[in-house]
Amino acid sequence: MNLKEKISKTELIGLYRDMALIREFENETYRQYMQKQIKGFLHVYSGEEAIAVGIMSVLKEHDYITTHYRDHGHALARGLDPKRIMAELFGKATGYSKGKGGSMHLFDSSRRFMGGYAIVAGQMPIATGLALAAQHEKKNALVVCFFGDGAMQEGEFHESMNLAAIWKLPIVFICENNLYGMGAAVDSTYALHDEIYKAGDAYKIPGYKIDGMDLFEVRNVMQKIDSHVRDGNGPVLIEAQTYRFRGHSISDPAAYRPKEEVEYWLGRDPIVLVRNYLIEQGLVTEEELQEADESVEQEVTEAVGFAQESPFPEAEALYDDVYADEE
Ligand SMILES: Cc1ncc(C[n+]2csc(CCOP(=O)(O)OP(=O)(O)O)c2C)c(N)n1
Ligand SMILES: [Mg+2]
After folding, report:
1. Which residues, in sequence order, are CB contacts of 179 under 8 Å at separation 6+?
2. What CATH number does the domain containing 287 carry?
3. How far is ligand 2, taken at its centre, from the CA of residue 256, in Å?
4. According to the model, what pLDDT value does residue 211 have?
5. Which of 16, 159, 190, 311 holds its CA 20 to 30 A away from the CA of 305?
6. Which ligand is nearest to the Cα of residue 151, counting in written order?
7. CA 184 to CA 150: how far, in whole Å?
8. What residues pack around ion ligand 2 (CB closer than 5 A)?
9. Inter-CA distances, 89 with 135, 173, 273, 293, 297, Å
């Protein structure tokens, strides 16, 4: 871990806090699921927080984001309201998708957070279309498209890379390589598993391999490529190496993973790494981080309270938003 830039203490604590908020929020979703307050699908991002926080910390307000179903972390890092995310998970009318989308379908166009998508790689052509729109708008915006290693084998990955390359679209493809797609290890499903960042070579798209557990490495690479992509030089592919600390979803005990492998990665917890680094370097104090932790707990408690008190959607709302309204 190596902080190469001058950055204020407030900003550093903010970055740490963003990661801690994702972890605490999702730990709470596990508790609420057990109490049957949350039902349906639930895939948490625990272990991968440095990627969303590092990338989002560089983006501008008018940039677009698409992601997969493991989307709480990206949504929180983009500044979506934890109360409305929790309400969505509770199926309440105050949620981001009015309680009808659930965990996998967070969406907030006001923050240009253009959705979590349940279909593996389904967000990729959407991101490509958004990048085409951004290019036409000429406002210097870029699109970040997050996806898992499991998306590499989908046709949509290749179609999106090709179009993005020939049209020189302003898009950053970020593969969160957590070594598994559901219970399948990536080395059993993808021929280029050990060099995912090279998958862009076939489309002349430059690739970067980074340590996704290292907040500052993620932030540095995004800063480095930001103007290249924004200024019309075409897309970039980033492979961020990471690990999901829990199973694929809440119903997966993840017994297929070797114990030593899990222990190795737990020892590289991105939140612990950044916490230790900041303290060791004398950039912040233990007390300041403690304060951040406490405020995170408070925020998550308030999110649960908001979700509990919110109403479920009315039965009459069942058919709303199925089709676009006629103009
Ligand atoms: C097109 C499609 N095929 C299969 C599935 C079932 N499915 C859901 S998640 C998943 C694994 C995806 O793994 P990865 O992209 O590595 O993401 P991760 O869960 O590791 O973050 C699969 C196969 C799906 N949702 N969509
Ligand atoms: Mg994966």
Report:
1. 149, 185, 186, 243
2. 3.40.50.970
3. 14
4. 98
5. 16
6. 1
7. 9
8. 148-149, 178, 181
9. 34, 27, 29, 23, 18
What's the number of domains the chain is made of?
Answer: 1
CA of 242 to the centre of ligand 2 (A): 9
Does residue 219 sit within a domain?
Answer: yes
Q: Which helix (H) or strand (E) holds 239?
A: strand 236-241
Q: Is the Cβ atom of 113 under 6 angstroms away from ligand 1?
A: no
Task: Dig out the tokens for 162 from the structure.
Answer: 């090709």
pLDDT tens for each residue of 223-259: 999 999 999 999 999 999 999 999 999 999 999 999 9
With respect to residue 1, please indicate whether it lies within any of the assigned structural domains.
no
Question: What confidence tens digit (pLDDT) does each residue in 300-326 have?
Answer: 999 999 999 999 999 999 999 888 876
Domain for residue 319, yes or no?
A: no
Q: Which domain holds residue 188?
A: 9-307
Mean pLDDT computed over every residue of the chain: 97
What tokens does 270 get?
């991105």
Query: Ligand 1 centre from 2 Cα, in Å?
Result: 33
Q: Which of 217, 192, 280 is nearest to 4 (CA)?
A: 217
Q: Is position 43 within any domain? A: yes
Q: In the numeric block, which tokens belong to residue 128?
A: 């490509």
Amino acid 327: pLDDT = 60
List beta partners, residue 210.
240
pLDDT tens digits along 257-266: 999 999 999 9
